Amino acid sequence: METGIMTTHAPASEQEATAIVAQAAGRSERLRLVGGNTKAAFGRPPQDEATLASTGLTGITLYEPAEMVVGARAGTPLAEVEALLAERGQMLPFEPMDHRPLLGSSGAPTFGAVAAVNNSGPRRINAGAARDSLIGVRFVNGRGQAIKSGGRVMKNVTGLDLVKLMAGSWGTLGLLTEVTFKVLPVQERVVTLVLTGLDDAAAVEALSAALGSPFELTGAAHLPAGIGGAEARTLMRIEGFSKSVEYRLGELRRLLRRRGEATLVEGEDSAALWRAVRDATFLAEHRAAAVWRISTVPSRGPEVTAAVARARPARWFYDWGGGLIWLATEAGDDAGTVPVREAVRAAGGHATLVRAPETVRAAVPVFEPLPEPLMRLTAGIKAAHDPAGLFNPSRMYAGV
């Protein structure tokens, strides 16, 4: 079909997708690969001649509750998979983010996109990233060839692990047509322990102490004052069988007693709080602000935010025990690129510009610039899978 001057392809089968890619390769036609297109505002402005969408590739292809594994075609709505799992008391362990509130987008998140962007939320500190649960993929490479890697079990890997390579590739290496994940049981009880009034450094110290204990947190976040409330709140989530949760809560309270009295949040209030952390909705309402996703050493998170704040006004909160920072700055002409990337470079880590006006995204590298050796390696992988450079040029690292 046609949308203005942009052709949109939505193949209904993997075979049809291979034919479309092969034809595009023959014409050197660059393709924008999308799922539900909920992340349309991420990356550099479009640099493609046509869109290749996975939305025609739908349906659950595998579900074995006893083996805790689920597979579906890439365009299957994520909500459909999650609803199926919920019926059997199971879930995707890595708590994928919904980008729509932050990016102001519409559409439906797709199952394949979860793998394509390695979409991982607060539970990553306990259950790992989406990449760690991904055990099988099918995709079409830049030559128009259908490739299968992995299968139904975690150890089903020989040679080059294309499953892990495709996770987080943002559609730059191929069009995912089917993905398979391991799943976990839903926990009997979920409780959030909340400390109030801590500054950033004290909060990260408390989170580090809790994460270093044997009491198994599945969420560790800090919301400074003004982020979702007047008081600063430090959040620790505990899940499991009720007796285990009760014991661990008591031990954590003893461990953290010098940090102040803790309160407990359960039920929908707890779930809503972690959805807001997962989806970064605390920063969504300031539409003119640029939003950065910063990964660094947890103990140096407050150092990064303090350095940025000295250079220009900013708001932020922490996830992953302080190792993930969501930070909003005035967009300006550069979205605060210099202070953000200087602070990250000094502390170690990387910063991704998740949201900014199109003019800024056209001028500023969206991903953290890679050192030359990694840039050569990245370019070589891209050339091996997509030799004509067809796929998602707006999502590539600058220089690749």
Structural overview:
The chain is α+β, with helices and mostly antiparallel strands and 400 residues long. It has three domains: 214 residues, Uridine Diphospho-n-acetylenolpyruvylglucosamine Reductase, domain 3, CATH 3.30.465; 91 residues, Alpha-Beta Plaits (2-Layer Sandwich), CATH 3.30.70; 83 residues, Alpha-Beta Plaits, CATH 3.30.70. 32% of the residues lie in helices and 26% in strands. The chain is built from 14 helices and 19 strands. The protein has a five-stranded antiparallel sheet. Helix 11 packs antiparallel against helix 12. The longest helix is centred in the first third of the chain and has 14 residues. The radius of gyration is 21 Å and the shape is globular. The two termini are 31 Å apart. The mean pLDDT is 93.
